[in-house]
Amino acid sequence: MVDGEDDDAKPFTVGYGKPPKHTRFKPNHSGNPNGRPKGAKARTVLDAIAHALKRPMRVRKANGKVASMPTDEALINSVFQGALQGNAADRKLVFGLLGKIGQLTPPPAPAKGAGVVVVRRPAVSVEDWQKEFGGQRLPTDPLAGLPGIDPALMKQLKRRQTPDDA
């Protein structure tokens, strides 16, 4: 067999997509004889993200020195720094994370008898009011007797409550 001729004595030209016969892969032999190593697994997107988050990166700290830390730790530090500097989105994220991991706890319940409890009551008839409060009259003005209201403000509020006759 001559380079450039097939077994059938037809002319064969070497070119793009037509390598010489002696350099082609042999039948039933792999083009990658070593193959993928044992134990190596195909990476998923989640594996790639986890690997990227553990990769060390260089970060300039507040004191000006450069330190090496994992990417996930650097991200968390930057979010916390943003929250401390007043970034609203970072604060929301930090408080959400703290809530999820149980670091934010609701305040303890007030002791019995401490504080003010507001209870909504259904509408009361005049007779029930007088029985309960010892014959006192019902206030006709809902704003009457409220402490700390300026008389000028009271007039404005009353004007807004009544429909305009004009």
Overview of the molecule:
With 166 residues, the chain is mainly α. Helix content is 33%, strand content 6%. The chain is built from five helices and two strands. The protein has a two-stranded antiparallel ribbon with strand order 1-2. A hairpin with a 5-residue loop joins β1 and β2 (66-70). The longest helix has 14 residues, at 71-84.
Short description:
This protein has 166 residues and is mainly alpha-helical.
Write down the Rg: 41 Å
Major beta sheet summary: 2 strands, antiparallel
* Low-confidence sequence ranges: none
- What best-fitting shape do the alpha-carbon axes yield? elongated
Average pLDDT, rounded to a whole number, is 76
Query: How much helicity do the residues have?
Result: 25-40%
* Number of distinct beta strands: 2
Sketch the topology as an H/E string, one letter per element.
HEEHHHH
How does the helix and strand content classify structurally?
mainly alpha
What is the first-to-last residue Cα distance? 114 Å
What's the arrangement of strands in the largest beta sheet?
A: 1-2
